[in-house]
Predict the structure.
Amino acid sequence: MSTTLEPPGTPAPPAAATGIKGASVRRGDRVFVGLSRGAGILILVTMAAIAVFLIWKAIPSLQANTANFFTTTDWTPDAQPAYFGIAALVFGTVMTAIIAMLLAVPVGIGIALFIAHYASKRLASTLGFVTDLLAAVPSIIFGMWGIQFLTPQLQGFMQWLTTYFGWIPIFSNDLGIYTRSIMIAGIVLAIMVLPTISAITREVFVQTPRAHIEAALALGATRWEMVRMSIFPFARPGMISASMLGLGRALGETIAVALLLSATYDINWHITEPGGITFAANIALKWNEAGNIGLSALIASGLVLFVITLAVNMAARLIIARRSEFSGAN
Amino acid sequence: MSTLSQHEHDESESLLHEALAGGHLPRWSPAAVAVASIAVAFLLNVLTPVDGVAGTAVVAAVLFLVGQTGWSFVVEGRRHAVDRLATTGVYATFVIAVVPLVAVLGTVIVKGLSVISQEFLTTSMRFTTPRSEGGGLYHALIGTLEQVGIAALFGIPLGILAAIYLVEYAPSMRTRRLAHSISFFVDVMTGVPSVVVGLFVYTAFVLTLGLERSGFAASIALTILMLPVVVRSTEEMLRIVPRDLREASYALGIPKWRTILRIVLPTAMSGIITGAMLAVARVAGETAPLLLTTFISQSINTNPFKGPQAALPTFIWDQFTSGTDASVDRAWGGALVLIVLVMVLYASAKLVSRFTGVKKI
């Protein structure tokens, strides 16, 4: 990459070019470099500014808070005195994300496998288009669909789950009501993160060296054994980071969850019962009714969400970056 | 020795044949098992408490899995049985991907079409209460077009410039570390939740700089959300522009910046346009940042800099959470319009890339 012909105007321009109009060449380039580097730096500045402003504006509520910010489940920041904490938010966010991941990761990997190595070209491109379309559906529509279409459809399944698996604490349901639950939010989230997971995994699967695949098949492996022997070991970092990127989306998803959950600030392990709230949904639902401390408290919770998603995303990117640097495929 | 070895030879040959060719299920076996399991599931549906389309389908699927795996296990052995099981599983994910998409699009189209009318598209909600029928989303359509338009106006050029820096300039400069961290944070930025971006715009531009909650504030949030997507797609497009083109241009003594403007960008243009349109489509449906940075309006406001301004996503949110029959219907109408808008952007982006892709040399 670095062994290219140097263009005129940069460090050592050919004599002819400098002789005629070297100065103007340099000026044009300098302006253009400045502009484009400025745009790049703007991205770094934005990321830094997000952190700085959220911290700055979160401080007032954290100072006014009379409860433990991390272990309290209540959310009454505008009361006198302010009393709020993120425990319920953490619980709801993590539970919905776990359910979404449990459902979406195997299916997403299956779709990627199907597109990359099982389907005919035609079918594969159709399915690729389908998952892309799924990614293009706005999240508010998933929320409405989840309430008005999916929830009624899942009633029977939820009851069945409680009847036969109610002895597992999380599936027991004392209320007999199966709507607006963490379970349903998790299922909708799973559908929403499916395209993210399958798209990235597919890219990695396709990169599996042809020789690895053919070697496995030549040794008499069945197709599934080939997948386990050559594709999965090669693609494992990609699969992990695709799942983590999906996790990042599930953690930060707002509007669909805000529509699907009935904001209650408690930790309820019965995931098919109504209740639960997530960081993002809480911000959207409480925003317009919040007072000064209330807004600041929501910003504080947004800061926590930002830090969590940032950590997840950075870890995912580092895993993928490390792989692409050391694998022989690129 | 000869008779014995002949015998051994035969035996080993038959073993080898067994190992290589083995028992094999006939080609029609999956279809046969499928038909059989559907038939049995249907019988169970009629005769036993298994009921409903979904229940029958699940029973049929389980029967198929058990039947095929079992048959294969007996005839072909464990390895092939596992292989068939895995193949079925992989094919099943295909169905799992298609079902929600069909269900979502079907619901939106069925519920939305009953609401769409000329009145719905050309009036605002100014004289319509949540409970009464009528009204429309004209005001929201204007708001969305303006907000997304402004976001595109900022986001696309900035994104393209940043990508030019990463691809064209950074590799030949000594600031590799800067380029590396920009590239890394572009990736990380795609993962920042939209609601956090909304919070940021509110704290920085509304609380600190004194901008009012307006369509323009929403545009800033959408710009930030769009930026990393544009950078990434443009970067990919610039990377596939053949190096020969650049070098031919340099050889003619054309400076780098003009090479980029006249040679590189035009070559990659269709891909860049595709990426930009996808980015626009992605942010057009964003709701959370708009809820935080605008006030929802029921009437037409063509000025994005002043006063409350509606947009399609917030219109849908407002109508849906009002909760009356009439307003929920309007929300579905809005959902159909929004999804059509997004899909048209999406489909035309795909068309642009299909018909005018970068020509590989």
Observations:
- Chain A is about 70% helix and 0% strand.
- Chain A touches chain B through 103 residues (CB under 8 Å).
